[in-house]
Amino acid sequence: MFHAMMQSMFHMQLPWLEKILRPVIVYLFLVLLLRVFGKRELAQLNPFDLVVLLSLSNTVQNAMIGDDNSVSGGLVGAFSLLAINWLVVRLLYYSPRAERVITGRERVLVRGGRMDHKAMAAELITEEELLSVVRKQGFDQMGDVQMCVLEPNGSFYISGKQPSSGDKQHSEVMARLDALQADIAAVKRRVAQQ
Question: Which of 82, 88, 119, 147 has its CA 20 to 30 A from that of 140?
Answer without folding.
Answer: 119
